[in-house]
Design a protein that fits this description.
By secondary structure, the protein is an alpha/beta fold. It has helices at residues 13-17, 45-58, 74-79, 85-111, 130-136, 175-181, 186-189; strands spanning 4-7, 24-28, 62-65, 115-121, 142-147, 156-157, 160-161, 167-172. The strands form 2 sheets. The chain has a 6-stranded mixed β-sheet with strand order 2-1-3-4-8-5, with helices on both faces. It has a two-stranded antiparallel ribbon with strand order 6-7. The protein starts with a strand and ends in a 7-residue tail after the last helix.
Length: 196
């Protein structure tokens, strides 16, 4: 098998794998191509089935999943009245399908005795979907709340680079990963400069 693979993400972890002498697996994202050279699109049922096949074949040790969260964000909810209701329904349906696809991939990892890491912003309402509530009941799943500043997330603005205080939630079935991700804001520990 491969040491790491990603779903709903361009190569991030996989891109760094080689420098750590790890074997990178698939990165499934609209910006990435399937083995046949065509772009992945997990809105399509055939591509979801192909993901299952590739996941089984490559057997990643951990799978990292970060499905699109735009339609689950607070900003989307606040601004939905400015958009066509039909567009909102279509976008929400695609968002929920992507979320379910990611959860199914995570469940396959657990069922094969492998690991997963699923990330979503803590304020996303995807955590409240029926599938999410059911997934969280699995005793193999740990929920972790943490801040991206601890992971060195730094956007740039007119004042330069600065750490961002963004609460994020993770699900994983790895107690080791859960301990690494959980933590205290760097402002409190004094490790990094004040957030913007």
């Amino acid at each position: 098998g491969v040491h790491v693979a990603e779903v709903f993400s361009p190569p991030r972890y996989c891109k760094e794998a080689g420098s750590l002498r790890l074997r990178a697996g698939f990165s499934v994202d609209l910006s990435e191509n399937k083995p046949n050279g065509e772009p992945w699109d997990l809105s399509e049922d055939d591509d979801i089935l192909e993901l299952e096949t590739v996941q089984e074949g490559e057997d990643p040790f951990p799978l990292v999943g970060s499905p699109p969260c735009e339609v689950f964000s607070r900003m989307w909810s606040i601004s939905k009245h400015n958009r066509d209701p039909a567009r909102n329904r279509r976008a929400r349906a695609f968002g929920e399908k992507h979320f379910r696809t990611c959860l199914a991939a995570c469940r396959r990892q657990m069922d094969r005795g492998r690991y997963f890491l699923h990330e979503q912003p803590l304020g996303a309402n995807s955590w409240k979907l029926a599938e999410a509530v059911e997934f969280a009941k699995d005793p193999r799943v740990c929920f972790v709340k943490g801040l991206m500043c601890r992971l060195d997330m730094q956007p740039e603005d007119e004042h330069g680079w600065g750490h961002v205080r963004k609460y994020t939630g993770w699900w994983t079935n790895s107690p080791v990963l859960a301990r690494l991700l959980e933590g205290v804001c760097s402002n409190i520990t004094g490790e990094r400069e004040w957030h913007r």
